[in-house]
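Archive maintenance. Older records in this collection stored only the sequence; we are now back-filling the structure field for every entry so that each record is complete. The fields below show one back-filled record exactly as it appears after the update. Entries are processed alphabetically, and Complement C1q subcomponent subunit B-like is next in the queue.

ARCHIVE ENTRY
Title: Complement C1q subcomponent subunit B-like
Organism field: Sinocyclocheilus anshuiensis
Length field: 243
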Amino acid sequence: MAFIFMSAHMVLRLIIMLLLVASSESETCDGYRGFPGRPGIPGVPGTDGKEGVKGEKGDPGEDAVPIIGPKGDPGIPGLPGRPGEKGDKGLHGAPGPVGPKGERGDFTGVDTPNQYFVFSYKKSPRAQRVNPDKLIVFDIPLISGAGDVLDSEGFFEVEKAGMYYISYHISSSQSACLKIQVGEEEKVKFCDSPGMIMVTAGSVVLPLKTGDKVSVQTTALSSIFSRDTDCTFTGFLLFPMNG
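Back-filled structure field:
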């Protein structure tokens, strides 16, 4: 505030003194002041520091409830898979109930009994285990007619030569291995052994001569049981032949 009230004469004297001081300082310097230098090149960045220690897991909040988002849209169905392997063959079912016994019919359309030959026998009701190569005896006739003759040993003896259809039906509790035989010659054999109750059958068409003996025999140990008409031995002439 004192500078403001100084006279013009005093101000002039102060300016001259300041100029003299400045000139005296400039005369003492050895050279002229140079231009500022260029900035230096930045240094290489330093390496990263070591990782710090992993912090401890925080405690879940007491009232924390997991948030479940909305169910997503179903994806695109994939291609069909390869077919699976074929399964094992199932077990034989249990035999069905025996049907009612039919009434005996009359043969018609023939002139004389000698024009047809048929036989059908059943086995007496009982259970038995039959050793190999043994005859199955069917001893109770089911029909009568020309040629329906079984001899005392249980063989069907042919009276009229021709082509015959021969069949059997057998009930078994474990296994049934049987063959249809003419005399001592085996014509066809079948074997079923599922280890359970079953009904098995076998049939064959054979040319037979007069006097041939047809039978059903075992080929292995067989467990056979019969009740009513579930064990039968049947045959009939298809057409006659010379012989």
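Update note: Helices lie at 8-28. The radius of gyration is 60 Å.
Entry marked complete.
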